[in-house]
Design goal:
Structural class: alpha+beta
Number of helices: 3
Strand content: 25-35%
Order of helices and strands: HEEHHEE
Helix content: 25-40%
Number of strands: 4
Oligomer: single chain
Radius of gyration: 23 Å
Low-confidence stretches: none
Largest sheet: 4 strands, antiparallel
């Protein structure tokens, strides 16, 4: 009985150590009600990152403020969702395209 348990345990540990280590995958666009990040690779591929940010912040009734960019491989473009100024009257609209 002990030999069987030892064999199964050895096989399980051997298979686990043979598997490659994987890093966490991060989506190219991620955010919440205070802001978010967009992968720089989306910008270089021609996606309208301003429209992505505007649509995201408009879901929370806020306007977008682009705050920074890391223009290199693996870099991100960051943005904030800020409250709409009271003088503007209406919340931001979603981009039509």
């Amino acid at each position: 009985m002990r030999a069987t348990v030892f064999a199964v345990l050895t096989a399980a540990l051997g298979m686990g150590s043979a598997a490659p280590a994987l890093a966490d995958w991060v989506p190219p666009f991620k955010g919440n009600d205070t802001g978010g990040i967009i992968a720089y690779s989306l910008f270089t591929s021609g996606v309208d990152i301003k429209a992505l940010a505007v649509n995201h912040c408009a879901n929370y009734g806020k306007a977008v403020k682009l705050t920074g960019a890391q223009p290199n491989y693996g870099g991100y473009i960051s943005f904030e969702c800020v409250w709409v100024h009271p003088g503007y009257g209406e919340p931001p609209l979603h981009a039509a395209y």
